[in-house]
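Collaborator request, handled under Task 6.
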Amino acid sequence: MTNREAHQRNLRKGRFSQPGYWYFITTGTKNKLPLFSDPATPKIVMDCLKCLNEQSRIDLIAAVVMPDHIHFAARLLNTTLPSLMHSLKSYTSNKINEQLEREGPLWEPQYYDHAIRSEDELKE
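Structure tokens returned to the collaborator:
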């Protein structure tokens, strides 16, 4: 097992996914490729998050798309973190690969999540 695989497994240890809780989530592109530098690709990510919000799977309060990663804050409603991230990554990978006429993985398999435990932390 490589150090990278061990790190990915450690990110999942103790992961707690609870509907009704607020989370700050970060995930990046495979090999830190700046795939969101193309003007059309950030819109795909934001449209997907908006759709997940409209489907009442999440309550999205903030999101930012950087050249090689995204950050967003949302409350889980009718989903779990693994299900949410699978939906987000699967949909956006297909659309962005089509848009950029590329193949292969778009996202790193792991993601970072932080449960927000107080209103002050949520405001921050």
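The cover message to the collaborator said: "Helices lie at 3-12, 40-54, 81-100, 119-123. The mean pLDDT is 90. Please let us know whether this matches your experimental observations."
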